[in-house]
Amino acid sequence: MNDTGGTPWRERSVIVTGGTRGIGRGIAEQFARRGAAVLLTGRDREAAREVAGALVRSTGGRVVGAGADLRDPAAMEEVAALAERLHGHVDVLCANAGIFPEKPLREMTAADVDEVLAVNLRGSILSVRACLPAMERAGHGRVVLTSSITGPTTGYAGWSHYGASKAGQLGFLRGAALELAPLRITVNAVLPGNVRTEGLEALGEDYLRRMAAAVPLGRLGSPADVAHAVCFLASDEAAFITGQTLTVDGGQTVPESLEAFAPAAVSG
After folding, report:
1. CATH architecture for the domain at 9-265
2. What amino acid positions are annotated as catalytic residues?
3. pLDDT, tens digit (0-9, with 9 covering 90-100), for 74-104
4. Strands (E), the chain
5. For residue 3, what pLDDT is reported?
């Protein structure tokens, strides 16, 4: 990669896990618009192919979809091999795939915990490991994890296992960043706040309104808001940034209470 700036995106090969909807789809779209060759994954192979086709039509970019269940340790090895066959190399991994089932702690089973950790945490770790050989052959790499403010910064009742998985990603990030730095591979993460995706919309309009009211900028985030941050961390301009997190939450984690940014307290 050119560490002096000016990312030549058309020369970049990007993998986006969990790219069939929400933030992942937004990430894949932004890389495609920049000209990168994108391989997006999803558990449903047909859905991944359909989304890839839709993004090709809407962006004019190069997007391919592939099925991958990240609970299977071999799944990402197959994805990395496919990206290298299609594009010649792997430059960027966006480890975005994740699930967030709500479950109160009193009702949570061992299987519930294992499922969330297997996809969100173990899946991220194994995805990075699977892409390492190709990045080593390329002589460089960018890894961007999609974590969350929930777990690393905040908590939310009913999502304690999800929060644990997202906090765990950051523990992995720091060790991986140190280990991979000599290989010119950076490892960073974005921490989205409340982003309006299909999953969030399923929680209902009342929930969406309450969440938007907690954001100083007055709205929920969009997948594109997160995707722009991911593209920056994957760029040559971010070559000297590793082991770091970038919060993308509209200021949600800044105020100590709702009163701290109530409109009545703001003067012109």
Report:
1. 3-Layer(aba) Sandwich (3.40)
2. 162
3. 999 999 999 999 999 999 999 999 999 999 9
4. 13-16, 37-42, 62-67, 92-95, 141-146, 185-192, 245-248
5. 45
